[in-house]
C-alpha cells in the first residue's frame, strides 16, 4: 500500500519477493488491459515444465495448476472471486474507486481475493485471466512437505477473518474443507466398517474420475503434460487428506503476519 501511494502509474502490478518473471512480464500484463478491464489475473506456477525436483514439488506444481484452472474457470464464467497476488494487475482508478485495500488491509492475508471480488462489482468493468507464456510468474517451491502444509495452513486461516468475502465464494471454500475432512474420515472408517466400503469407494471413485479428467484438460491447455498420468492420479488420491490436514491445522493455529 505504501508503494502504491508513492507511485504515479495507472497500471499497478504486484508480485512476491520469491518470484521469477519473464522479461516480457510487464509489457505482457499491460497488453491485456483493454479500456474496460479493471484487473488482470495472471498465471502462477511453482516449477517450469519438467523441472520438478522431487515428489513434493510435483505435488505442489499440480496443486498450483488446479488453483489456476479454478481461477480461470471462475473468471471465464463471470464469478470474479479469486486471484493470486504474486501475479496480479489492476488499474489505479479501479483501486481508488473501491476505496483501496479498505478493511482487508487489516487482515493477515487474503487482500488479493478481496480486491478481486470488490473490483468485480464495478459496473461496466471486466476482470480477465491471462495465462500466455509471456506473463507467467514462477513462485519459489516450498522446500518440503511440512513447509508446503504450513504455507497452505496460513492461506486457509485467512478465511477465519470473515471480511466481506462474497457469500458464494466463502460457502464454496467451507464446502471444500468440510467435504475433504468428511471424506478423509470416511475412508479411514471404511477400513473398520466393511459396510461403508462400497459407498465410500463409489463416491471417492466419482470424485477421482472428475478431478483426473479435469486436470488432464488443464494440463493440455496450459502445456503441463509433464504433470499428467500417474502424478495427477497421486495428487487426486492425496488431495482430500492434504486439504483436511490444512483445514484442521488452520482451525488450531490461525494465520499471522510474517
Question: How would you describe this protein?
Answer:
- The chain is an alpha/beta fold and 258 residues long.
- The protein is built from nine helices and seven strands; from the N terminus they run αββαββαβααββαααα.
- The protein has a four-stranded mixed β-sheet with strand order 1-5-3-6, with helices on both faces. A three-stranded mixed β-sheet has the order 2-7-4.
- α7 packs across α9 and α8 packs across α9 (230-252).
| Total strand segments | 7
Shape: globular
Give me the oligomer status: single chain
Given as residue ranges, the uncertain stretches (5+ residues, pLDDT < 50) are none
Give the H and E element order: HEEHEEHEHHEEHHHH
Number of helices: 9
- Kindly report how far apart the N and C termini lie: 16 Å
Using only C-alpha atoms, the radius of gyration works out to 19 Å
Largest sheet, strands/sense/barrel: 4 strands, mixed
Portion in beta strands: 5-15%
Averaged pLDDT: 91
Structural category is alpha/beta
Strand arrangement, major sheet: 1-5-3-6
**What percentage of residues falls in helices of 4 or more residues?**
40-55%
Offer a quick outline of the entry.
The protein has 258 residues and is of the alpha/beta class. It has helices at 2-6, 25-31, 55-76, 92-97, 111-119, 145-157, 167-190, 197-221, 230-252, and strands at 11-14, 19-20, 37-42, 44-45, 88-91, 126-130, 137-139. The longest helix has 25 residues, at 197-221.
Name the features:
globular; 52% helix; 258 residues; four-stranded mixed sheet; three-stranded mixed sheet; alpha/beta
Q: How are the SSEs placed, and which strands pair?
A:
Elements: H1 2-6, E1 11-14, E2 19-20, H2 25-31, E3 37-42, E4 44-45, H3 55-76, E5 88-91, H4 92-97, H5 111-119, E6 126-130, E7 137-139, H6 145-157, H7 167-190, H8 197-221, H9 230-252
Helix pairs in contact: 3-9, 6-9, 7-8, 7-9, 8-9
Amino acid at each position: 500500500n505504501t508503494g502504491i501511494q508513492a507511485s504515479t502509474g495507472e497500471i499497478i502490478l504486484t508480485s512476491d519477493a520469491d518470484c521469477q518473471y519473464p522479461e516480457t512480464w510487464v509489457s505482457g500484463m499491460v497488453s491485456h488491459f483493454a479500456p474496460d478491464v479493471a484487473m488482470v489475473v495472471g498465471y502462477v506456477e511453482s516449477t517450469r515444465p519438467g523441472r520438478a525436483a522431487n515428489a513434493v514439488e510435483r505435488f505442489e506444481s499440480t496443486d498450483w495448476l488446479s488453483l489456476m484452472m479454478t481461477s480461470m474457470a471462475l473468471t471465464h464464467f463471470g464469478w470474479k472471486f479469486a486471484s493470486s497476488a504474486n501475479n496480479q494487475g489492476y488499474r489505479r482508478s479501479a483501486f481508488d474507486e473501491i476505496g483501496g485495500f479498505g478493511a482487508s488491509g487489516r487482515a493477515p492475508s487474503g487482500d488479493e481475493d478481496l480486491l478481486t471480488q470488490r473490483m468485480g462489482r464495478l459496473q461496466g468493468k471486466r476482470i480477465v485471466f491471462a495465462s500466455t507464456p509471456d506473463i507467467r510468474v514462477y513462485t519459489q517451491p516450498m522446500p518440503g512437505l511440512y513447509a508446503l502444509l504450513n504455507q497452505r495452513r496460513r492461506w486457509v486461516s485467512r478465511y477465519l477473518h470473515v471480511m466481506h468475502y462474497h457469500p458464494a465464494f466463502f460457502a464454496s471454500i467451507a464446502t471444500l474443507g468440510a467435504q475433504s475432512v468428511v471424506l478423509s474420515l470416511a475412508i479411514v472408517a471404511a477400513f473398520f466398517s466393511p459396510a461403508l466400503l462400497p459407498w465410500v469407494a463409489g463416491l471417492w471413485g466419482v470424485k477421482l474420475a472428475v478431478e483426473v479428467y479435469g486436470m488432464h484438460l488443464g494440463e493440455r491447455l496450459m502445456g503441463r503434460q509433464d504433470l499428467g498420468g500417474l502424478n495427477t492420479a497421486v495428487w487426486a488420491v492425496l488431495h482430500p487428506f492434504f486439504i483436511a490436514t490444512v483445514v484442521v491445522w488452520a482451525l488450531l493455529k490461525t494465520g499471522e503476519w510474517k
